[in-house]
Amino acid sequence: MTEIMEKINRLLVEALTLGYVEAAAIVRRDGIMVTAQFPEGVDERAIAAMVAAIMGTAETAIVELGRGRVNNVIVLAEEGNLVALGAGPILLLVCLVKPEGNLNEALSHLNKVAKKIAEIAK
Question: pTM value?
Answer without folding.
Answer: 0.93
